[in-house]
Specification:
- It contains twelve helices and twelve strands.
- The chain is α/β, with parallel strands linked by helices.
- The protein has two domains: 198 residues, inorganic pyrophosphatase (n-terminal core) (Alpha-Beta Complex); 116 residues, Diaminopimelate Epimerase, Chain A, domain 1.
- The strands form two sheets. Strands 3-2-1-4-5-6 form a six-stranded parallel beta sheet, with helices on one face. Strands 7-8-9-10-12-11 form a six-stranded mixed beta sheet.
- Strand 9 and strand 10 form a beta hairpin.
- Helix 2 runs parallel beside helix 4, helix 2 runs antiparallel to helix 5 and helix 5 runs antiparallel to helix 6.
- The longest helix is centred in the first third of the chain and has 16 residues.
- The protein starts with 10 loop residues before the first helix and ends in a 6-residue tail after the last helix.
- The protein binds manganese (II) ion (MN).
- The site of manganese (II) ion has 6 residues, from loops.
Length: 337
C-alpha cells in the first residue's frame, strides 16, 4: 500500500481527537463553503470514528449550502445559549476564521473556555488563543488541510458525503478553480473527490445557480450605480439600508456582488460599501491579482486573503467611502484629486 505522507503536523490534533468524545466545531460569521465544508466533512468523519460531533455557528446556514446538512447538524448559536452548548465538550475545533473576532457571538465563550481548542486555517493572520494551531496561508482551502488530516487518520473512511463537503470548500475558495490558488495540488485533490463520486456540475449548480430573483434585481441596481476610478482600474459601489429597502430586498440578499464587479474588463480592484447599521459599514475588497488588498483590511481591524478581504468601519457611509478610496488609490501609487 502507498504510504501516506501528511503535509501538515497533525500528531497533536490526532491525539486530541482520540482522547475526546464530544467535539464542538465552529467557523466564522456569514460562513462560506470552506468553513461549512470543513464542519460537514469533519462531522461525518468524526461520527464514523464513533465520536459525538456538534456544530454551532453564529450565523444561519445559507440556503445554498443546505445540501450539506444531511443530518440537520448545523445549529445556530445565539447569545442566549451562553455556555450551555459547551457542556460535556472535550474539544473545540475552529475552521477558516482569519481573526478570532470573526467567530461572532460564540467567540466570547470559545476564548473564555478552558476546553482544549484547535484552530485550522489558511488566513495569514494572528489567531490568538488556541492550544493547537495548524495554519498554512498557501493552502487553497481549509478543506484541503482537513483532507490531509482525514487521510492521516483513516482514509478508508472517506465516503461520498465527506468527499462532497471537502470538495465544496475547494470549489468555493478557488473561485470555481479560477483563482491563483488553483494549484496542481488543488486539482489533484479535486480528482480524488471525483473518484469518490462527487459531481462537479451538480455541486456548482446548487451553490452558484440559485440566485434569488430579488438578488438579481439588487445586483442590477448595483451595476447601474457603479462608480469607476483611475481610468476604470477601480470600480466601487455603495448600498445604504434605504436603497436596499426601496428595491424590496434585504441585507442578506447582498452576496457575491463584489466578485461580479471585479469580473469587469480592466477592473483591478472592486470595493463594496454596505451600510449594516448607523455608522456600521461593511467594506469588501476583491482584486484581480496585481495588487494585494488585505493590507487595508488589516489596518482597519479586518482581514482576509491578498485578493479577497474585508472589514467593518464605525462611521457613516460617506466617510467610509472617502477614507477607503484614498487608501485604494495609494495601492496604485496615485492620489485622489
Ligand atoms: Mn477559506
Amino acid at each position: 500500500m502507498k504510504q501516506l505522507v501528511p503535509k501538515y503536523k497533525w500528531d497533536r490534533v490526532k491525539r486530541a481527537i482520540e482522547n475526546s468524545r464530544k467535539i464542538l466545531m465552529t467557523t466564522h460569521i456569514n460562513p462560506d463553503g470552506d468553513g461549512l465544508g470543513c464542519e460537514a466533512a469533519m462531522y461525518y468523519f468524526l461520527k464514523k470514528l464513533g465520536k459525538d460531533p456538534v456544530i454551532y455557528n453564529s450565523s444561519d446556514l445559507p440556503p445554498e449550502y443546505e445540501f450539506l446538512n444531511r443530518e440537520g447538524m448545523f445549529k445556530r448559536y445565539t447569545k442566549q445559549m451562553g455556555s450551555s452548548v459547551f457542556k460535556g465538550v472535550d474539544l473545540i475545533m475552529v475552521f477558516d476564521i482569519g481573526t478570532p473576532d470573526r467567530l461572532g457571538c460564540i467567540g466570547e465563550y470559545v476564548s473564555k473556555s478552558s476546553i482544549l481548542k484547535i484552530c485550522v486555517d489558511h488566513h495569514p493572520n494572528k489567531h490568538g488563543n488556541f492550544d493547537i494551531e495548524i495554519v498554512d496561508p498557501d493552502a487553497p482551502s481549509v478543506t484541503f488541510m482537513i483532507f490531509d488530516l482525514i487521510k492521516c487518520i483513516d482514509s478508508s473512511l472517506i465516503d461520498y458525503p465527506i468527499a462532497e463537503a471537502l470538495y465544496v470548500g475547494l470549489l468555493t475558495d478557488t473561485g470555481s478553480f479560477r483563482f491563483e490558488n488553483t494549484t496542481i495540488e488543488a486539482l489533484k485533490m479535486a480528482i480524488e473527490m471525483l473518484e469518490h463520486g462527487v459531481k462537479p456540475g451538480q455541486v456548482y449548480r446548487q451553490i452558484y445557480e440559485n440566485l434569488r430573483p430579488i438578488q438579481a434585481k439588487l445586483l442590477g441596481y448595483v451595476l447601474q450605480h457603479l462608480h469607476y476610478e483611475l481610468s476604470g482600474k477601480v470600480a466601487w459601489f455603495s448600498l445604504t439600508r434605504e436603497e436596499i429597502k426601496s428595491e424590496g430586498a434585504k441585507l442578506e440578499d447582498v452576496d457575491g456582488f463584489t466578485d461580479f464587479v471585479r469580473s469587469i474588463k480592466d477592473v483591478e480592484v472592486s470595493v463594496m460599501f454596505l451600510e449594516l447599521d448607523d455608522k456600521k459599514i461593511k467594506v469588501n475588497f476583491r482584486s484581480k491579482g496585481r495588487v494585494a488588498v488585505n493590507g487595508i483590511a488589516h489596518r482597519h481591524g479586518g482581514g482576509g486573503h491578498p485578493y479577497a478581504a474585508g472589514m467593518l468601519l464605525q462611521m457613516s457611509i460617506s466617510e467610509a467611502i472617502g477614507l477607503v478610496l484614498e487608501e485604494v488609490f495609494e495601492l496604485f501609487g496615485e492620489r485622489s484629486i
